[in-house]
Amino acid sequence: MGQVHHHVLPGRARNPNLADYDQAVTHFKWEDVERNFTWYDTGKVNMAYEAVDRHVREGRGEKTALLYSDSTRDESYTFADLQEKSNRFGNVLRKYRIGKGDRVFLFMPRQPELYFSLLGILKVGAVAGPLFEAFMETAVKDRLEDSGAVALVTTPELLHRVKREELPELRYIFLVGGGSDPENYVLDYETECASASEELEPEWLGLEDGLIMHYTSGSTGKPKGVYHVQRAMIQHYYSGKVVLDLLDDDIYWCTADPGWVTGTSYGIFAPWLCGVTNVVRGGRFSPRDWYQTIERNKVTVWYSAPTAFRMLMSAGTESLKGVDLSSLRHILSVGEPLNPEVIRWGDKVYSQRIHDTWWMTETGGQLICNFPGMDIKPGSMGRPLPGIKATILDDKGNKLPPYTMGNLAIQTPWPSMMDRIWNNSAKYEEYFRIPGWYISGDSAYMDDEGYFWFQGRVDDVINSAGERIGPFEVESKLIEHPAVAEAGVIGKPDTLRGEIVKAFISLRQGYIPSPELKAEIASFVRSGLSAHAAPREIEFKDKLPKTRSGKIMRRVLKAWELQLPAGDLSTIED
Ligand code: 6R9
To answer: What is the complex's ipTM, to 2 decimals?
Structure first.
């Protein structure tokens, strides 16, 4: 482990910024990045202005900003179009007195209106909260309630999952795709936008004013609202340049949904701050469809995830027949460990390296990466971005030597670091319990050349197909089922998805274990919470291992599953 593989393929990186990594690190100053923004001179800050309006003002209004397609739509929008559409929705929000600091959520599938309305929200200084369309009732309610969202943009198909009567702070709903119920403050998005002005002066903000909230899972408690501020744009822009390697004529495709942080930081902000053409493909994953998306749009830079690459790999050469992928010059991955096997497969089928990047919802942007042009060690997440200091700490905060596994920690602060956990300062402070450091929750080691190697999570968070799943949220839903007395949820290793959700369940009296009951319980979670959180495997047990204080010991469940020794059982109940 740890040695450079010297058969590195010729890179097709075009951005010289990091040609000499050590030089770049030595001379790096965030202030040099800040000079690229208009607010550096004017003092007027607004992410949507920098990502859209400034391109229009600087003569790039007719450049294609968004190439959208799904099975029924095929549309293209310029930066000037984005400006007009987002101004209109911004004016709609102002008409209803929604503005600076208000939380406005989005709950809809990927489609152009999601992007227009998100930008409109930012234009008026409100904080955007994108929710993944697969969320069901409970997941939607928990997030809208905790954030105190005052308005929601959604579609008629998803509206029934929004429990209005339980959400007193939610005043307005904007429906994309028809329908309205003005008495109940359900308004038609199109009609409202059509009658609004296309001129709008953005709300001028400070770097510490709100930008976006993403709910994400930890090992305990409900999902946490990770709150980011305008300052994050410095990191989005910089990593767009040096990690995504974006240049003017690139056609960029990030496959992530804006419901996850990758779909906003790198599906919206980074590409548009860098002024490049951004491809969005709606609908479901299929290998053929994805390759055709690359071919049709002549995608040059492609950002995806290990599970997707593994699915493409297992689809075999059949899916590649007759498609021309020669436009691709830079491929990146995030979300889970990128297996060396996948990298070697990528070498063959794409004739280039897939570049792994490491970061989290909380970090707001990429921190440890394989940069274009650098020697890649398959299996390593890469090296810290210039401006970022990463290290490995023990639990007391002592730095550990190379090749020793410990807590992956980042020196604070950096521009896109989360500003707070909404409504939960105790949770926020847990990340910063060692002064001067952010403790990621991942374990890793560093080799003697400063490359970082991911080892796992230190907590019980499950990573299935790149999606972060909190066992607590799933357990809470499970015990709402009448048959379930107790439930403990773990991640079980899986070759395709990295991990799958596995639930151990003890049944209430009178219920008899059966395959049908398993299926029913799984579908209860699927329809109440979301498909990705539903257990793919259920095992019934007479009793679950618990501490004397009554906490289910997931660590013991995991040991059962992996047939490992269960470790210290001194706190177990009996
Ligand atoms: C951006 C995003 C964060 C967690 C993180 C880690 C895992 C992300 C990874 C990786 C191994 C990588 N993770 N990138 N593990 N190698 N390159 O994914 O955010 O959804 O918050 O997940 O994902 O465990 O802590 P998020």
So the answer is: 1.00
Look at 565 and 573; give whichever has higher pLDDT: 565
Does 64 have pLDDT greater than 90?
yes
197-211, 291-305, 533-547: least confident range: 533-547
Q: Following CA atoms 50, 56, 58, 59 in sequence, which dihedral angle do they give, to the nearest 10 degrees?
A: 150
pLDDT of residue 547: 74
CATH 2.40.30.10 for the 30-444 domain, yes or no: no
For a ligand 1 pocket test, name from 260, 334, 362 the mutation site with the most ligand atoms within 8 angstroms of its C-beta.
334
Neighbours of 243 (CB within 10 A): 28
- State the distance from the centre of ligand 1 to the C-alpha of 456, rounded, in angstroms: 10
Ligand 1 lining (C-beta closer than 6 Å): 216, 260-262, 334-337, 356-361, 381, 440-442, 454, 457, 463, 468
Task: Let me know: does 484 contact 507? Beta carbons within 8 Å.
Answer: yes
Please give the model's pTM, rounded to 2 decimal places.
0.91
Look at residue 546 in the predicted model and tell me its pLDDT. 81
Domain ranges of the chain: 30-444, 461-562
CATH of 461-562, picked from 3.40.50.360, 3.30.200.20, 3.40.50.720, 3.30.300.30, is: 3.30.300.30
Distance (angstroms) between ligand 1 centre and the Cα of 180 equals 39
Q: In what order do the strands lie in the sheet with 64-69?
A: 74-78, 64-69, 277-281, 251-254, 301-304, 330-333, 354-358, 368-369, 383-384
40 pLDDT above the threshold of 50: yes
- pLDDT digits 0-9 by tens, 317-330: 889 999 999 999 99
Query: What ligand 1 atom has the least distance to the C-alpha of 457?
Result: 24
Which residue is closest in CA terms to ligand 1's atom 4?
A: 360
In DSSP terms, 200 is beta-bridged to none
